[in-house]
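For the sake of transparency, this paper describes our internal protein records without simplification. An entry from our holdings is shown next, in its original layout:
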Amino acid sequence: MTPVFFVHGMWSTPSVFDRLRARLAVTGRPTYAPALPFHDRAPDLAPPPELGTITVEDYIAFLVAEIALLPEPPVIAGHSMGGFLAQAVAARVGAPGLILFSPAATASTNVPAISPIRTMMEVIIKPKWWERPTKIDADHARWGIYNEVPAPIADAEIAALVWDSGRVLFEMALPFLARTGSTQVDHTRLMMPALIVTGDRDRITPSAIARATARRIAGPIDYHELPGASHWLWWGAVEERVGDIVEDWLALNFPPALVPNTSIGRDPSTGFDDFPGT
């Protein structure tokens, strides 16, 4: 069965996909979810200084190398910044399919809006933030990422946020000033089936970005804009709906392979499901 390779977002970790991965594991779907460099640290630890200058290209190269280790090409799925990275990686190495959750913009799918600036204001007013590790503060995270999410859930998610790269944020927010062209994605290379899921109340990556992304991708698109949902799709009934959409799309586009009945008692998926490890 075609595996799914998950890419988490900025200030986040692979744990955001735990419940969805567990759900897919029940169907026999192999999944992988590595932590981006320096994202496997406890939230209360001070960030390593070098994290501040890691680039978009560094993240892409890391993911390309991780995918090269897999037994077969995976569907690449990403949330937020991970949605941008999923497109960049798929355009370079190919992929049988693409899943984008609340995707951040590439250089050609950015749609100007005030709400992302307001969300990140406390980060970008700090001196030389583009050269330092960054972490969003709780108040702005509640307003721009966890709006529509119950306070106890939002508080727990905010407490789990980790440090990320100021350089990566700079390159994604201001791609015309980036030293490399890594935020440029050749969407004509994205010929694979793609699923896009976003919320209509997303403030940090507004749904207009998801719509622009759907228009640019060359392959067939299945687009879902969930009413009343914010950027954070990983809770309660919203997460259940996302899981339903993902399961249905995978079953339609990447069903289990038909295996001749020559090895009675053998599970053809044994040895591939890597959940919950990375």
